[in-house]
Amino acid sequence: HYSSQNKKTSEHFSRVSFILEERLNSALKLFSGQPRVWVDPIISKKNDITITPNDDDENRVKISEIIEEPRSMIISAPPLFGLTCLSHFLVLEAWKRGQYWLYVNSRKLKSHNIEQYIYNDYTDLEVDSNSLPIRCIIIDEWNPLENGSMKKLKALCERFPTLPIIVMRTIDGVKFLKEKQEDIKIDREFQTVFLLPMTRGQVRCIVSAYNQQVKIADDDVLVEKVVSDLTTLNIHRTPQNCLTLLKVDER
Asked: How many CB atoms lie within 10 A of CB 125?
């Protein structure tokens, strides 16, 4: 009986891992046939895109630290910087350590249907809420300028007063408020950190992985071209921008 119970637990762990990996793969996929490449993003306490913090920089926030000791924080980045991919990566890595983190898409959440949202996720993953309580919540695609966003965050904070909540905040400088943002006070301290553009080394990782699958040119030549194109076009070194340029080069 013990071994069969162990087998069932192991099978369930693998099944949930597979679902969470699929969620991450789906977020990583930009084009059909594109290789899935994960590059640990650079998270910093300073919003300075001109500086690349190294591993022992006091402003660098390591992903492993967030997973090992989750705390309430707001991770800010412009659109397409990879906040959704980071969300799914954190949930998957936490699961591998035996923790259940709840992924919440802010666009699909209503402040009054939190319980239903939680129930649906537990059901999708076939996880027992009694034996595996939520360890941390990630709210993705959260934009403070969108109507109702503060209300949703406040409702989550009130529903889970002791749980860490990680907010993936999209900084969209183009959008202007159509209506006055509701004046809502949230009784919680959040550490604010920022997702920075990729380093040249990270660009190389994406280029090499892509180039292995679809041979376009020599790796060094291709890295030079992609970095040069990003600079010429004056766009950020994000995975999505790199992949778009590689797709153009491929054609």
From this structure: 16
Q: Going by DSSP bridges, is the β-strand pair 100-105/134-142 parallel, antiparallel, or unpaired?
A: parallel
Are β-strands 134-142 and 42-44 bridged in parallel, bridged antiparallel, or unpaired? unpaired
Angle (CA) 115-119-124 rounded to 5° is 150
* Calpha distance 78→194 (Å, rounded): 10
Taking phi first (over 0 means left), then psi (-120 to 50 degrees means alpha), and beta for anything else, what does residue 29 get?
A: beta
Q: pTM of whole model > 0.85?
A: yes
Pairing of strands 165-170, 73-77: parallel
Q: What is the side-by-side order of every strand in the sheet holding 100-105?
A: 60-61, 42-44, 191-196, 73-77, 165-170, 134-142, 100-105
Distance, CA of 74 to CA of 72 (rounded, Å): 7
Give per-residue pLDDT as tens, 56-93: 678 889 999 999 999 999 999 988 889 999 999 999 99
The DSSP element (H or E) to which 245 belongs, if any, is helix 239-250
